[in-house]
Amino acid sequence: MRSSNPVFSRRGFSRDNGYAGFNAAPQAGAPAAGANPYAQGTAPNPYATNPYAPTGAPAPARTGAMTIDDVVTRTAMTLGTVVLGAALAWALLPVDEANLNKSYGIAIGAALIAFVLSLVQSFKRKPVPALIIAYAAFEGVFLGVISSAVSTYIGPGVVMQAVMGTMCVFAGVLLAYKMRWIRVTRRFYGFVMAAAMGFMLLMAVNLLFAVFGGGDGLGFRSGGLGILFGVIGIILGACFLALDFKQVEDGIAYGAPREESWLAAFGLTMTLVWIYLEMLRLLSILSGDD
Q1: pLDDT tens per residue across span 108-158
Q2: Is residue 262 within 8 Å of residue 126, measured between CB atoms?
Q3: What does the DSSP assignment read for 190-250?
Q4: CA–CA separation, 176 vs 155, rounded Å?
Q5: What is the pTM of this model?
Q6: Residue 5 to residue 271: CA distance in whole angstroms
């Protein structure tokens, strides 16, 4: 099952080490369906043909295989870079009247660079830690300026509420996934992808109308519709997290190489940034209506 995350959707983890993609046909010697609690109703596991997977008698754990500690460590490093970049941008790029245009210009430039870096990494066959850290740094600059602007012009408490809301979504989805309240199946994946494509299409149309027609375009980002689409965006982000958790769980279970933990960190960071931005937008609309 491919994750909805753009980092994971192009391939399982890496294929150059012999991993089959999520839509690959079952291979001889693949683990039986009963060995995977998610096997029923899902696509074949991407690590079924993993060269690290034990065959015959049980083999000792491979020291080069990815572990949950690797994923947690890399994710903490990547998110920490985002937070550091945001803090520096907040402190060094004020959004007062004298510096507003300059700060916004730098933020937009940082967002574009982060987008390009994410594309470059997504099309590479192996994770490049330097690219991932650079993406996190530029993404942090963008988030810092945007958050500072929201705090200055809308409300000083909105940013902290958005941070807490993002943490609550992450913790809630993780708990639901570990308790098996969320079942990541092929149907779940198809529904999330269809909803995400529809959501992004509507946002793109709204942006075009806003650019060429002025105002808020079709109104999808303000008022009642803005609140509705903000909630939908957060729900989609939560679904992305569930798909990413499934991807990471399968990678660990079937012995993905340790370097792939950087891809896991990259994907989870992108998803959390999505949730934070949607949360910030929703809370900004709600604060503006007060």
Answers
A1: 999 999 999 999 998 888 899 999 999 999 999 999 999 999 999 888 889
A2: no
A3: HHHHHHHHHHHHHHHHHHHHHHHH-TTTTSTTSHHHHHHHHHHHHHHHHHHHHHHHHHHHH
A4: 32
A5: 0.78
A6: 7
